[in-house]
């Protein structure tokens, strides 16, 4: 991350500008809700030994994980074992091996007395469902995408777009929210996908010394071709 002293007045380099944007987080309702629910589960497990946090690919789970790690490090008294891309545990040849994998994770959590937080896609649910006992002794947290059939979701998606535009160090901040339909169709409402896409487009704009982020920049870096 580009960090600067308050008395340092030199212009930011292109790399520093890109690093600042890459490291920024736009806080939005789905992120806040998942964050709060996870910390509540850690502080009030109610007999659970595992916390499953699941959602679609590109929704922002890794960003959420980093925010939770930061909080845990600040608290120091909060102890939890975190695993990203945990759906990979289910990539075994047969169900018996998957069961053995799940039993090992459960045993590790029980023996150490340390909560395990598993972050992954919806495939993680298939892994959890291998054991009825485990399902009863775990906490489920859903981190959804923004949906096109929900008016409030679309309002928040536009707000996220505007916030990303404001975080770009350009002469003229791009009015991304005015093109929200284009961005929504190609990110399917997943903020993580949107952020990666905008980071690539912003990099291109910086390389070209552009005063703003144009349609040409983000169309060249289109995530999903419709």
Structural summary, described in words:
The structure is a single chain. The chain has 226 residues and is of the alpha/beta class. It folds into two domains: 29-142, Rossmann fold (3-Layer(aba) Sandwich), CATH 3.40.50; 147-220, no CATH class. Helices cover 51% and strands 9% of the residues. The chain is built from ten helices and four strands, in the order H-H-E-H-E-H-E-H-H-E-H-H-H-H. It has helices at residues 14-23, 29-43, 61-75, 95-112, 123-128, 132-136, 151-166, 180-187, 191-207, 215-220; strands at residues 50-54, 80-83, 115-120, 138-142. It has a four-stranded parallel β-sheet, with helices on both faces. Helix 1 runs antiparallel to helix 9 (191-207) and helix 7 packs parallel to helix 9. The radius of gyration is 20 Å and the shape is elongated.
